[in-house]
Amino acid sequence: MRRLAFDCSGDFRSVAVSTDGVVHVERAEEGSRSHAERLVPLMNDALAAARWSWQDIDELVVATGPGSFTGIRIAVAAARALALALDRRVRAVSTLRALLAVAGQDCTIAAIDARRGGVYYALPDGPERAGDVTISTATPDAAASMAARPLVAIGSGARLVCDAAGEGQVLEAPLRASALVACAVADAAGGQVAVDGGAVRPVYLRAADAVPRAA
Q: What's the DSSP call for residue 15?
């Protein structure tokens, strides 16, 4: 199975090209304000490095949130458009689950800064972390109280959680598309099927901070 995985949920955008879970090429760039302009060129760069054409892709994998409202929307829109253009199916992976995959077995919580004094968080779901995780919204101290000890946190909200707890280790590792590949492989092995692009939905959890002005 040849997969193109990508994420724009935070300050980085990342793309990975893989076959049967083996990542051949991974590309990442910083700059949340340029996701819309740079995502497809980054995909083209990764495909060229792997010597793949767009038609070589069997399946798309996309991070659906939570995270940056705009970044998630861009990634999901790209997944839908590519699925339609290439006649391919899509696997959706939550950003928090992918962060847990990045962190490894010692991590006890993944947290994303939700602003307004809150975090989105998820706890490890079993030793294999197969399937999705339960995503919740809470204050940093409430999220910290749910995590096992010793406290080891990853994500943009990790420092908030550890500071609220007065203890803990922050893992400084951004989300990478290779983690999405690992989650996709686990899901396929567990019997989950990919979906049509139109069925992919962003995970926002709450309304965007910016709203249109009233007419």
A: E
- CATH, range 2-94+175-199: 3.30.420.40
Q: Cβ–Cβ contacts within 10 Å for residue 21, how many?
A: 15
Whole-number average pLDDT of the chain: 92
The pTM for the full model equals 0.92
Q: Which of 161, 181, 129 is nearest to 18 (CA)?
A: 181
Q: Are 151 and 121 in contact (CB under 8 A)?
A: no
Cα distance between residue 196 and residue 151, in whole Å:
38
Query: For residue range 139-155, what is the model confidence (pLDDT) as tens digits?
Result: 999 999 999 999 999 99
182-195 pLDDT, tens digit each = 999 999 999 999 99
Superfamily per CATH, domain 96-171: ATPase, nucleotide binding domain (3.30.420.40)
Within the chain, all domains assigned CATH 3.30.420.40 are found at 2-94+175-199, 96-171
Q: How many CA atoms lie within 13 A of 68 on its CB side?
A: 19
24: part of which helix (H) or strand (E)? strand 22-30
123 near 146, Cβ under 8 Å? Answer: yes
Strand order of the β-sheet with 109-115 is: 136-138, 118-122, 109-115, 152-154, 169-171
